[in-house]
UniProtKB/TrEMBL annotation:
Belongs to the bacterial solute-binding protein 1 family. InterPro entries: SBP, TAT_signal. Residues 1-24 form the signal peptide. The keyword Transport applies. It comes from Nonomuraea roseola. PROSITE patterns: PROKAR_LIPOPROTEIN, TAT. This is ABC transporter substrate-binding protein. Keywords: Signal, Transport.
Length: 427
């Protein structure tokens, strides 16, 4: 994962990503962001998790907490917040000394909490955890292992193999040329089928970023915004070509794409590995999940590395009261093979250790093993995550790409505008 120096990290909290209230709460301590005080060897610690607030996962997560508390004879005080409020709430409470112990984080939030200087370096736990290289990297920041990977996946492409078969598509496409040919065949099916339910609403058009990388754009060169280079322009022009040919549809976001795919009305769409569970719950055809196939993003030319955005959760530990036990719990929850395999069996989120992925409960699941090998293996973090304004940077790019799709601007002009605006969001 991309690392930053402390000055860059502190800048992350200087924009409006967390809102004005959170910004005030995240100001550095007068002591220079010193770690919270408390007995690190205490046998009572907290565990904060948004998954404990979600019906689909809370039972499985609570079972891990209870198993650890019983085995180690410790007390774990749990807390939870809805996902959409989570980062703001955790940031406020960490600044106020109202949260301790272990905390579940989305990997894109790691920098925001790391900047406060209150997280324990979990390198000793990571060294013995048996994590895969890509998983371990998701918890690294500024040269330290501040998070232990709980689940590591990616945002990638999913195909409906039944639709492809009906359209006469032989196998899964591996290059842009093959992908276009497959879309054209699916387009002839009619019946309201969308060949590629790609994001075309501004709210989700950040999905264009891995396509820009596919065409050769680094997105970011050091601190220089690379969006607007020849490769990113070519990617957007290609996207526009698909749009004009009605191979992708207008006004589609992730939720729309999931619904289309669940109804058997889309041959391809982008999603995280959780897609299987979502589609299963929505699909009238209960055999649809058997027809879902993850595929590596098609490349510009054979031999290129497929691009995908890293996705996942880590567990961090606040240095202070109960930190020793919390760190041991984080290790247990993320690397104990029986625990991670059992968790996978209940919620289908892939483990992050080599042993966990090899466990029969996981290895026997073809969808997960294919996704890990074809998509997650080459996934990388969003390079804009290093900035507090990363969401605004993504939105700026998305809005300009949408302008291209609806014919209001050329790709070159639109991305030049996006790059100029994004520069002001880097500080």
């Amino acid at each position: 994962m991309t690392t930053m120096n402390r000055r860059d990290a502190l800048r992350m909290l200087g924009l409006s990503t967390l809102g004005a209230t959170a910004l005030a709460a995240c100001a550095p301590d007068a002591s220079g962001g010193s770690a919270p005080k408390g007995d690190t060897a205490a046998k009572t610690f907290g565990f904060t998790s948004w998954s404990l607030n979600e019906e689909a996962q809370k039972g499985a997560v609570q079972a891990i907490v209870d198993a650890y508390a019983t085995a180690k004879q410790v007390k774990v005080n749990t807390a939870s917040f809805p996902y959409n409020e989570y980062l703001n709430q955790v940031t406020l409470k960490l600044r106020g000394g109202q949260v301790s112990g272990a905390i579940q984080l989305d990997i894109s939030w790691l920098g925001a909490l790391a900047a406060m200087g209150k997280l324990r370096d979990l390198s000793p736990q990571a060294a013995k955890g048996g994590y895969t290289e890509v998983a371990r990297s998701s918890g690294q920041f500024d040269g330290k292992q501040l998070g232990l990977p709980w689940t590591t996946g990616s945002i990638g492409l999913i195909a409906n193999t039944d639709l492809l078969k009906k359209a006469g598509v032989d196998g899964l496409p591996s290059t842009i040329e093959e992908f276009e040919a497959a879309l054209a065949k699916v387009g002839k099916l009619g019946g309201g089928v969308v060949p590629y339910a790609a994001a075309t609403k501004a709210a989700q058009l950040k999905d264009i970023l891995p396509w820009m990388q596919t065409f050769g754009s680094p997105l970011l060169n050091g601190e220089e915004i690379a969006v607007g280079d020849d490769a990113s322009v070519a990617a957007v022009e290609w996207y526009k070509k698909l749009y004009d040919a009605k191979l992708i549809a207008p006004d589609v976001d992730r939720f729309d794409a999931r619904a289309l795919f669940a109804q058997g009305k889309a041959a391809f769409y982008d999603d995280a590995i959780i897609a299987r569970g979502v589609v299963s719950s929505q699909a009238p055809d209960k055999t649809l999940t058997e027809k879902m196939a993850p595929l590596a993003r098609p490349v510009l030319k054979a031999g290129d590395t497929p691009r995908a955005l890293l996705w996942g959760h880590v567990i961090v530990v606040v240095d202070g009261e109960g930190a020793d036990a919390a760190a041991d719990f984080a290790s247990f929850a993320t690397s104990d093979t029986a625990t991670v395999a059992g968790f996978f069996e209940k919620v289908k989120l892939p483990p992050t250790t080599t042993a966990g992925l090899a466990d029969p409960k996981v290895a026997g699941d073809t969808f997960t093993t294919d996704w890990t090998e074809k998509i997650t293996k080459t996934a990388t973090p969003n390079p804009f995550w290093r900035y507090a304004g990363y969401a605004q940077i993504e939105s700026t790019i998305a809005e300009q790409v949408q302008a291209v799709l609806v014919g209001q601007s050329s790709a070159k002009e639109a991305l030049a505008k996006a790059a100029e605006t994004a520069k002001g969001l880097q500080k």
